[in-house]
Design a protein that fits this description.
The protein has 277 residues and is α/β, with parallel strands linked by helices. It contains ten helices and eleven strands. The longest helix has 20 residues.
Length: 277
């Protein structure tokens, strides 16, 4: 479906608009898709995710926000979603916005799209996680296997509700990334209970100086032994890159790898070895 028709379709359904309003929440200016929420204008940026060797595998979407004629931190928009209903609507709107802008990117066939799920959404939606967004992706021509959903673990509360949400997302074909592992908890037992596909290390583990680097490397090895991929993030210089590689991470992310930008990097294809005649 052409993008103009997709935007019209989502606006007509009013699934992201406030109850009782007739406002359009999505706009397409011919180059980018924008969204409106609580007086804010929202856009998309994309930051590359790369293998250890530098090959770009996909991109993580980041939210741009403007209000009262100035740029705002993305978190300020979510603070305006004061009820669970508003939070769920905003979170789904943002992920739909990113999916639509991802469709405008060239050279992304087969590339990963990583999207954030707000922590409050897990508590606000009791079950059937991913069902509504799966229908959005289907309209956009994207399948869950190309989408990584990033969730945070506060490390403090009982992990069962988050584990149940992760399992439901995975049953629908999404891959789940657990963000900032090591910030609140680095317990392998808790990680096994949550069972994500990907673990994104907190900067305290993935960036030097690390007086216990051998402990961090052993932790990464244990995570990978459990079949989970590991991401070293917040990499901003050559020293941090070398440290992440020495830890044994699978993927790399950070300003040194690539800053969030309006356009995605082309997805690099593995070289094919010529077949001898």
């Amino acid at each position: 479906m052409p993008l103009t028709e997709l935007v019209h379709y989502f606006n007509k359904r009013r699934q992201f608009a406030r109850a009782g309003t007739e406002e359009d929440t999505l706009e397409f200016d011919g180059q980018r898709v924008y969204a409106r929420f609580a007086g804010h204008i929202l856009g998309s940026l994309f930051q590359p995710l790369a293998e250890r060797g530098g090959r770009v595998l996909g991109h993580e979407a980041h939210l741009q926000a403007w209000g009262s004629g100035r740029a705002l931190p993305a978190q300020a928009v979510f603070l305006d979603a004061r009820t669970d209903e508003a939070l769920v609507r905003l979170d789904r709107l943002v992920r739909t916005l990113h999916a639509l802008n991802f469709l405008l990117q060239r050279g992304q066939a087969g590339g990963i799209l990583a999207l954030n799920v707000h922590p409050r959404l897990v508590r606000a939606v009791p079950d059937r996680h991913g069902q509504v967004f799966e229908s959005v992706l289907s309209r956009c021509g994207l399948t869950p296997d190309r989408v990584v959903l990033k969730l945070a673990d506060d490390g403090l509360s009982e992990p069962a509700p988050l584990a149940a949400a992760i399992a439901e997302y995975q049953e629908r074909g999404y891959r789940i990334a657990l963000d900032n592992f090591g910030r609140h908890s680095s317990e392998l037992g808790r990680l096994e209970a949550l069972a994500p596909d990907i673990v994104k290390l907190d900067r305290s583990l993935s960036r030097p100086p690390a007086p216990a680097a051998h402990i961090a490397a052993a932790l990464v090895a244990e995570i990978r032994r459990r079949g989970m991929q590991v991401v070293g993030q917040h990499i901003e210089n050559a020293e941090q890159l070398q440290h992440a590689k020495e830890l044994g991470v699978d993927w790399l992310q950070g300003f040194l790898i690539g800053r969030p930008a309006l356009d995605c990097r082309p997805i690099a294809r593995p070289r094919r070895v010529p077949v001898a005649a």
